[in-house]
Amino acid sequence: MVVRLVVLKYLFDHSERELFEMLPMHAGYLWFCGLEFESSLPDRTTLVKTRALWCHNSIFENIMTHVVISVLLPDSSAPMFIPVIDGTQVRANASIHS
């Protein structure tokens, strides 16, 4: 869960304080972290301490390197992602003359 919280923090450019203020109310963030609305959330200091420890020991860098290698060289039995093409048509409110 800590890795997912760090990913959310960097993807959406939140501070730790902002992330933990938004987390209980944001269904997408909760789903991504594998939490329910009623789940107890980790304390914000847990993320700060874990991130500091991981940076000191290069753990987060090793995790991200593993993820990138898994995407670039996928194992045929367990693909990391499946490409999806969205063909949804959206009606635009635009003029053909402008």
Salient structural properties:
mainly alpha
3D architecture notes:
The chain is mainly α and 98 residues long. Helices cover 52% and strands 0% of the residues. It is built from five helices and no strands. The protein has helices at 2-11, 16-22, 27-32, 44-57, 59-72. The longest helix has 14 residues, at 44-57. The protein is extended, with a radius of gyration of 19 Å. The termini are far apart. The relative contact order is 0.11.
**What count of helical segments does DSSP give?**
5
Based on Cα principal axes, name the global outline: extended
Strand content: under 5%
Structural class assignment: mainly alpha
User: Which value, in Å, is the CA radius of gyration?
Assistant: 19 Å
Number of E-state strands: 0
Measured distance between first and last alpha carbons: 49 Å
Query: Helicity, in percent?
Result: 40-55%
Which residues form runs of ≥5 with pLDDT under 50?
none
Give the integer mean of the pLDDT values: 80
Helix and strand succession?
Answer: HHHHH
Summarize the main sheet: none
Number of domains: 1
Task: Give a nutshell description of this structure.
With 98 residues, this protein is mainly α. The protein has 5 helices and no strands.
